[in-house]
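Class prep. Sample record?

___
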Amino acid sequence: MNPNAILTYRQVLPPSQNRYPIPRHPASCRHPERTPTQHSSTPARSASTRRSNREDDAGDQAATGDAVAALHLLLEVRMRRRLFTVVDATNVTRAAREPLVAAAKRHNMLPIAVMVATPGTTCVERQGSRRANRAVPEDTVIQQRKDMVNSHRTLKAEGFLEVVFSDSLYRLLPFLERLSGTRQADLGLDDGDGLGDLNLVSRVFGEEILPLWRWKPGSNVAGGDRVAEIRLGQQYLTLALRTNVDGEGDIGFDVMVPCPYDDECTGYAWAPAYSVTCLYRALNGDLDDSEDIVCTVHGGVDDIDQEADGHALQQLAEVGGSVG
């Protein structure tokens, strides 16, 4: 189960199973068969994430006690505010689950147990790619899975009002809902300002580049086209927004690179930038010999070839005239 797939109450339970007409935010307890991986910031809380915050090492088992205490503190804070909360931890024993159910009852929340029925052999195989301090012994993994399977008979008696399996959850709908909301916000269709003239930048190079992006009003290095710069420390790149690529009206970006035809060229050389990978390659020098480079002084590869051919023909003509 993807820990980032946070579900709303009506998406955790299909409409036919929704027995509570008053909307409540459930506290979903995830029952994995292996130690959960660290993940991005979501309403989910995991012991490995708390270990990482405590010791800068998600695999440091000596920090587990403090990590669990921190997890329960955050659990109380979220439930007190009646926020949807997912506990992403190996809750395969009754002792581990009891404080979660008790917290849900104290704050009048709906506890839901989510079971992930991954085969035991798969759980063991997935340990192979982990670092040594994050790998769980095989016998422990097998025992945890047995405990999870056995717990299915007691979860209702422990206080969980619903027990669902991860493969029955509505996961695509909330995923698309989040993507749609983000896109609507980027376009300013949520009554906000949106990204404005950075929308195209985000789509081409990714949203991570936006904090580094600065438009350069008044710059004339791109023949009148709009110019921008991305800078981090002493390194930077200059880009141009082209609004009529190849005379076809297409829109795209060029990145400034050294002129490949003359080390002392006083013009400006540009190469197409289709993605953030092109920016990396430009800064790393991997585009310096690209055939797509066009210089404001020397032109492109075809222009250089034509100049060379013309010079050769002139030399032949001069030789032929002297012979005649």
Q: What stands out?
A: The longest strand covers residues 235-245.
